[in-house]
UniProtKB/TrEMBL annotation:
CDD domains (UniProt xref): ABC_6TM_TAP
Domain ABC transmembrane type-1: 129-410
Keyword field contains Transmembrane helix: yes
GN (gene name): LOC107831222
Protein known as: ABC transporter B family member 26, chloroplastic isoform X1
GO cellular component terms, semicolon-separated: membrane
Top-rank taxon: Eukaryota
Primary localisation category: membrane
């Protein structure tokens, strides 16, 4: 029996295979084959059938597939599984890298940020009060429209002419009131937003002017101008867009939920459960957008810092011919900005996927449960129609609240550094000293 069988490949045209036996037979003969492959084989005539040949690795196979192909297929499958696990919410791909920048701004809560904004526009409280009054009237008018719209349709079907005319007149009045108050609300909130941005920039600029000279040695010009420009501009939509739509949809959603619970408690509770799931996803999405917005502002400031340094030292750059290196520095920050924007877009896609799935689930549940209730005689077709309209209103109100709340968190995350700079104490030479001291 052979103790060892091996194959040695010297060159493509020459292969030597040998077998060492327990007993050497004197009748061993040397076989030489001179074909495309030359092979020398030491074998015994008596045990020639026991000769074993081991193929090289590149010809090994498993179930008809080569070993290399099987390994590559397995590696490809592992890579795909790892890719899906990383891209799925909560995976490593969603982690935001903050090692490249030194974030010194303290996290700002939504309540604290809104309080600071109110301090800037408190002297224009009458304008804010008028805007909120118009908002409440608009929300109440719009939330009443589906009720009278459905009543008008079914009164026309039942040939109730007087009821139909009354409902139509109410609808016309509600539409006019809603349109007028909506225009007033948008105008007043826009003015309040303009005042907020103007005073925030004035406050930040005046605070920076009163800092000690050593402060400007540690802070770059590009970073400070980015705070005055891009960061303050991020706050430009807080009052006019975010708070405006959040409060309006909170009022409308609350009214729709109360109407649904009165109309059909089981259906109302099902819709409420879906809205709670949507709100949970909304909070997670909003927190992620806040962190992403904070990083975007930091990367933008770093890119502006690189550009400012390059332009201020352009003569030196031209002498040493480092244009490519400076372009690489700037492109590095632009690449990081693109990565964060990609994650923001993907998160927004997941948010819309969740909303549409839950929204259509609400419709299906309303039709199924409502249809069985109609067959059982618990509700009428008019009540089911009202329920479907108000459930859609509630879901869309929840979506608008979530979308604008995430936008609000983005603005607050982008303005954290601004609030920190606004809180800086002025230099000692500008502080009024107490005469008695």
């Amino acid at each position: 029996m052979a103790l060892l069988v091996s194959s040695v490949q010297f060159q493509p045209g020459l292969r030597i295979v040998y077998s060492v036996q327990k007993r050497q037979n004197p009748n061993n003969i040397l076989h030489k084959r001179s074909q495309s492959k030359t092979r020398f084989s030491f074998s015994s005539n008596s045990i020639n059938q026991r000769y074993r040949y081991i193929s090289p690795l590149n010809s090994a196979s498993i179930n008809g597939y080569s070993v290399q192909e099987a390994d590559s297929s397995e590696k490809l499958g592992v890579k795909w599984m790892e890719f899906v696990r990383n891209v799925f919410p909560g995976g490593n791909w969603w982690r935001l890298d903050v090692d490249d920048i030194g974030i010194t701004a303290k996290p700002v809560t939504v309540v604290r940020a809104l309080h600071r904004m109110w301090e800037l526009i408190a002297q224009d409280g009458l304008l804010i009060f008028a805007a909120f009054t118009a908002l409440i009237i608009t929300a109440l008018s719009e939330i009443s429209i589906p009720h009278f719209l459905t009543a008008s349709i079914f009164s026309a079907q039942s040939s109730s002419i007087a009821v139909f005319h009354r409902n139509v007149r109410i609808l016309v009045v509600l539409c006019i009131i809603s349109g007028i108050c909506s225009g007033v609300r948008g105008c007043f909130f826009g003015l309040a937003n303009m005042i907020l941005v103007q005073r925030m920039r004035e406050k930040l600029y005046s605070t920076l002017l009163l800092q000690d000279i050593s402060f400007f040695d540690s802070e770059t010009v590009g970073d400070l101008t980015s705070r005055l420009g891009a960061d303050c501009q991020q706050v430009s939509r807080v009052i006019g867009n975010d708070l405006n739509l959040i409060l309006r949809n909170v009022l409308q959603g609350t009214g729709a939920l109360a109407y649904l619970l009165i109309l059909s408690p089981p259906l109302g509770l099902c819709t409420l459960a879906i809205c709670c799931a949507l709100l949970t996803i909304m909070l997670l999405y909003g927190q992620y957008q806040k962190k992403a917005a904070k990083l975007i502002q930091e990367y933008t400031a770093s890119a502006n810092e690189v550009a400012q340094e390059t332009f201020s030292l352009m003569r030196t750059v031209r002498v040493y011919g480092t244009e490519e290196q400076e372009l690489g520095r700037y492109a590095r920050w632009l690449g990081k900005l693109a990565d964060i924007s990609l994650r923001q877009s993907a998160a927004y896609g997941y948010w819309n996927f969740s909303f549409n799935t839950l929204y259509h689930s609400t419709q299906v549940i309303a039709v199924l449960v409502g249809g069985m209730s109609i067959l059982a005689g618990h509700i009428t077709a008019e009540q089911l129609t009202k329920f479907i309209l108000y459930s859609e209103w509630l879901i869309y109100s929840t979506w608008w609240v979530g979308d604008n709340l995430s936008s609000l968190m983005q603005s607050i995350g982008a303005s954290e550094k601004v609030f920190q700079l606004m809180d800086l104490r002025p230099s000692g030479q500008f502080v009024d000293k107490d005469p008695s001291g």
